[in-house]
Protein 1
Amino acid sequence: MVVVMITSEMEPWASTGGLGEILGTFPEALARRGMEVHCFLPRYQRVAAKDPAVRQGRVRVHFVEQPAYFDRPGLYGDERGDYPDNAERFTFFCRESLRRVEVENLKPDWIHAHDWPGAASAVYLKRWREQKPRWRSVRSMLTIHNLAYQGLFPKECFETMALPAGSFEADGFLFYGKGSLLRGGLACADRLTTVSRAYAEEMLKPEGGAGMEELLRNRRDRFSGILNGIDTERWDPARDEALAARYDAASLERRSENRAPLQRAFGLSADPEPLLLGMVTRFDYQKGVDGVLEGLDRLMALPVQLAVLGEGDRRTAEGLQAAAARFPGRIGVRVGFDRPLARRIYGGADGLLIPSRYEPCGLTQMIAMRYGLVPVVRRTGGLKETVSEGPNGTGFCFEGLAAEDLLGAVTRAAVLRRGDPIGWRALQRRGMVVDFSIDQMAADYAALYEREAA
């Protein structure tokens, strides 16, 4: 089977977060299953490769070049905001990717597009199947990694798409007086997926559908959730060179040696008693960091320390830095993206706090459990699918957005860690043995490809 991925992000070439990380590992996992996989990615300014295509493991990565669109510092925008021609940029990218498939005589079974920047490829494929015999047996899949990002633009921005007259309405782009690239893809793709089963269920309801719920309900038989996964070789505490002490589930006692170096890195007191909470996050509305700030005084009344690593909204970053100044030795904040430091949080903190308002899947809780770091999460989307609380649970969960809900879960974690060290160690080990591997995700997609193509 031949699969062509259309994506705006892919590690190590260009990434802003989870999409790039998943596309850096998922295609290779499919290729390990015997599939021929090609990925098409814009040649952004940051892409160092000079050739039009390169081999990345078993996967062929093709770069779509157009300096006028992609020779820019950012992927989607700069300090002034989103690029005003993003609709033109990414519809060109989708159209040119499919043209390159023709030129290079690839014979895909599937065009698998990701999020709004790749969504127009499903529309073009639908139209080209009507015009070109070579495309008639090719099927399209669109994966929604985050429904909040919809590729929403004024109607006139769609005039550059080189589609027949009337396609704006006929192909499903129209969305409350504007045009949505994501909506067009959702309407035209043969198969729709998202990144967890729980998120798929939430997207069918008004409170989670971001205006797309009716379309998704109408296509329910073509829509499903498949849980994302992590590269368990890349994320392995037994081989992680960022850690002072490496360990696995059988040598978990060594993990405590990573606590003091982490405390020093964040300016926290070298105290073995408090529950050391970490956060590896973006500072934005989705991630709920503002809720932590609102309940900060009550959180600091508990026996906890807090180490926060992240970047994003300036006001949130300043609020966290002010909190660290108010509670020296109890709160440490590092603003920016620092992968080695993130690994030290995974390998040295006691709990990972994830208070998201919504979370399509989340990778940090999977990495945390792999490292014996106990997740403390709000039950939403992929978090409630991957973390459970109870006698056989893997973490601590809370339902609401009020500070009391978060504080209750943190309190339960602190009480178990201090009062029942054996129970805490068992909780850590249960998380470490759960299979969240990218190979399981690839197996689920391979089964879907085969089933739909039959």
Protein 2
Amino acid sequence: MIQSFSYPRSCRFSTEFTLHVNGQAVEVLRTDAADFAIFVYDASQGPAEVVVKRRIEPILEHALRPLSLGLEGALREDGALVFQLTSAQKLSVEVAGSRPLYVWANPPELDVPSEADPNVIYFKGGQTYEVGRLELQAGQTVYLEGGAVVKGRIYAQQADGITIRGYGILDGSYYGSRFKEHVKSVFLERCHDVLVRDITMIHPSGWMIMVGVCERVEICNVKQIGEVVCSDGVDIVGSKHVHVHDCFLHNNDDCVVVKAFAMKHGKNPDFCADLKGCPEDILVENCTLANDPAGNAMEIGHELSVERVSDITFRNIDVLSVHGQGAVFSIHNNDRAVVEDVLFEDIRVEHCWDKFIDFRISKSRFSSDQERGHIRNVVLRDVNWLRADNNIGYTTSLIGGWDAEHRVENVRLENICFNGEPIQHVDELEINTRYADEVCLVEQAVATVC
């Protein structure tokens, strides 16, 4: 079963690609960074044949990423690309000479909320809604039906048990010409028991999802394309017990980042809040990340104006790209926090440029504390980097403390691979260290080289 959606004619549609799934046309939309298509695929009904065509020229070269999906495409005589899906996958179809085409297959929805429920704000498909600022109250659900385009932002403060869901689109362009500030597309402050799932987010003017001093948050199957600088994907600020999973995030700043600080800037009172909770129990897994020139793929920092940041895990992540000056693995402690017990596990890196690892205690324009902090007990385990020849001599790693009293301690590198081959010494990472202790390479969890 394939379910496609019809979008308002005011949307920007792809001028380059067409897409058919099991013979059914799927509308392809356009942003400045990538084209994308959303549909529902019930894998229990058998494989789905996907056909991608360029409108003018034939497809000559292609890649289906992340490569870990193991998808293989075939080129037909008419210049079309054909491949099969056997599960609801989110992937990037990359054609030589073209912008990426994101093909986002979603599983059938369960327990769709009722339009008649007074606690449900229901946006029907096929229409555009200019809502501006939409504030949620405790127990409310916002439902974006597939094909709906909601222009504006969603805000909640001390609203427990809220849900944002549906296969529709949240479009941040409502604020592009109205504010000079970077407006957060979804900002949830001091909320408990939150679910954000299935939505697609485009055209932000600032951070795309921010959870500030929240607890028990699940962010699932969210798709994002952020073009502008400061379009962070998911900002987990001073929050606890947060689970981000099965998301596809393309951002022109940090894709997923953990912070803790007080927002004291901007004219809008929504953007001034004390978010100095101690982040802990954060799990990010089963995600695909694409980072444009600004920011990092997986980041902790820069703003960490609290006592402790702990129990942070990134697991089973595909990093399609870190194109700019950022890093794949990043901890920037610019404040007083003790950052500890951090795990990066089962990470596949398809492209990065400037930095592979960047763990630093420093001071910057983002700092608010005079005291410097610490970084300790960090593990990178089962990492494979498809390192290209162009990376050699250019892509470096940095691990640096602030001074003799504020150090980076106990960084374990377990089974780090270049192109499937385990490295034999930390020097192969072209790593630069200062005020750093016990930076150790562990191959197959047996031999240790420090």
Protein 3
Amino acid sequence: MLDPVTARPAPPADRTTYGSLWRGVPRELGFLLLTMPIAIVGLSVLQTLFWTGVGTIVIYVGLFVLIGAFYTARGFGTVEVECLRWAGRPEIRRPLWEPADKPRTFWRSAFGPFVNGHYWLYLLHGILINPIVSIVSWTVTIVWASVALGGLTGWIWEGFIPHDGQTVFLSRVIVDWASQSSSTFDPIVGDRILYFIAGALFAATLPFVTRGLTLMHDAIARGLLGAWPSETLQREVADLSASRGAAVAAEDQALRRLERDLHDGPQQRLIRLQMDIAAAERKLTDDPAAAAALLAEARQQAGDTLEELRALSRGFAPPLLQDRGLIAAAESLAARSTVPMRVESSLAPGERFSPETERNAYYVLAELATNVAKHSGATEARLFVDRTADAAGAPWLSVWVTDNGTGGAVLTPGHGLSGLSERVRGMRGELVVDSPAGGPTRIGTRLPLA
């Protein structure tokens, strides 16, 4: 039996509610309470390394101490970024530590930090900015949480505190000042009520405080510890170049395969058809019966050639795909398969995508269905089409083929799955192969819809 494939619905829109703020309090509290001890340790270590390196640079030893300071600052900055991610903040894109277009060497790794602005920013963050910010955020967090906890639980432990000789009570001072008269209520009870009200107010506002302090750390980290916009642009250009190269390579491979299929199939049949017609022409007057037999065989060859050409065209963009969409084309593909297949989809009825996306998704399904029929040894298979969304909310089209065959499918350069992977990369998608020895096999791809 095939394992079930569960559709992954798109995540709901990110709405900040009071309940969602409270759900983030434990992680944010943990981050805010840990960040100051880590920052103080980082301050001590980095100050020692940096100024030791500066003081001994005249004897060249300081150069290597400074290199150690740079890499240590990078480590503490990475810890801050990871702690923020653990606290529920969106991931901060990492800087480019080394030029992508240059080979990595010992000297470039050793002395590169001196000319890389990110190392200096990480050092500034660890030596000056993070300790100051962490002390402020830690102090506010401790005070806010302590007042909230102490005020809400004061009615439990206040009775065990002796008040003999106490003449000043905060509740009486506030009431006397507000009413401009002397109050007569029990000040001990009044203080308990006042502390409980203060605790409730501080507890009610605690999610806003922890979220605000965490956002402050996040903003500072994004400015000092994240990648620069120019680096993001460089990465996008490199990704686009790689995608374009992958698309060109995949298209070239597809054209070569089409040329091979045409040569091995329809071309050979057309040559045979030409020879049969020529033979029939020679026998038409001498042996009409033999000529008729040859013409009948030629007609069969013509029909077989037409079927092969239709099969080849279906592998790219069948008319059904253009007229009725991806699901109808997938159902037609499953119906023609020699291995029993069923189609499952979470798409809305009649949902359509761009022609390019549908054509590439169908191409993937057709290639995978062909692999199932030729190589898997499966007795049943399933085609699955799903619309999903990633953590950022970007929509993706996922297509999967699952079978109960012998497994063992791998991405081998120059073979079918490798060419399929190149084609998917050209669409800025990704191909996933899960095919342990003995099966089952799950192969699928995600294609961006935006």
Protein 4
Amino acid sequence: MQMQILTTTRAHFLLSFFLNYLLFSSPFIQGFQPLPAPTSGGDHYFESPLSPPALPPVPADGGGYGYAPTSPAVIGQWHEGSPGAPAPIPENGVGGDRDESTASAPAMDNGGVRWCAVRDQLEECQFFVGVIDQLTGYTWKCVQREKAQDCMESIKKGEADLVNLEAGLAYNAFINHSMKAIANEMYYDHSKTYKAVAVVNRRACENNEKITLMDFKGHKSCHGGYSTAAGWNYPINYIKNLINNEELSDREIATSFFSSVCAPSEVEGFDICNACSKENETCPEKGLYSGHSGAFRCLVEELGDIAFVKGDTVLLYSMEGPHSQLWSSKSVRDFMYLCPQGGCREINGYPGDCSFGAVPANVIMAHNSMPNKKREHILETLTNSSLVDALYAPNNVSIIHLFSPSTQGLAMIEKVTRPYLGKSASISQSILRLNAPETRVASYEADNGSDESSSSSYICCSQVMTMLSLLMLPLILGITPK
């Protein structure tokens, strides 16, 4: 009898053990799904304990660009030990289950912070770091490079620490240069996104009320930069789906759809400038048509018939705009948004669904191996309200190149890089597949780990263990087939 009780007790114990194992190991139990593998080692989550001040509402789509007076943004601070804050990571910046210890050219703390300025950003950068030096006493310096790609290379080599990149280029830095997003720009009403839009001359809309993007096939196009999210990736991905062709590269899609293209590149050798250069493919020096303002200039000067830019570009750089230039010879009323689904809409800063979608705000990128203390200093400095006050004080240098003109503050990234980039990263990856479906995507998965493959492996292993456990259970309980 005693032996039977012991056997029963043992059976109940083992049964309880295996049931618990099945409960917590199975990926199919709701609430216990495996977390995706980190896509950028060393990224952190930051808590924002401060509530931002109430500001006038913007449309529900969140893509507006109101022109309230620029004011300092109240930005939360992350601190170790706060609820939900991440555990400290090693000094080499390695985090998650990705081994960054062999990452090339770690960013060493040499007693200062080096901001990489692209071309004409240098003067603004010098003003910016000068303000920081006065406020903190910590040395910040500017390193000038000709292209954003050069800045990525310099950061990878340890020659610079930070660069501000838009979402498309940020994805490039993330997958090819072991970099991560640590802070982002904030726009009106603390918005962290903007809309990717197409802009055309008003007369084109007035001549055809049912005008669509297909009506611009065979016309000339202006882009806010090759590989940029709003200027290239979003519209090219849309055109790819429109013509239903997965065989062409992104450049082939653009050059076969449009008669000529103006798309300067921040990556050497990828310029397409036959629409805005007398030398056919070579883009003009000094970045005349670079960036979203350059794409709008291309449209204003009638080098192109359609421009792919940020939703507020025309408002900022038209004749009446706060950042009008010598070439800004036309009014905002001379242009309209071209809706991807057809028709046009007035340019008022709120394109809504008359866009290719929302793009995450520009990000400050750093190397994965940046030491913790240095990163914390940088984040504390960039999100300091005193810095925002000083930068936007009257009569100061107008910062429209180092940061987006509509920037009202900086905030610490609250997600790891890949989730922060979201839809933009997915579209960028889709474009990479078009260009080199085997090598580039394989390189991405090797360098950063594929969430999908990691998850699939986990599920596969869990299924095998679950099956083995079920097969062993009758043997443990002493149940044998008759």
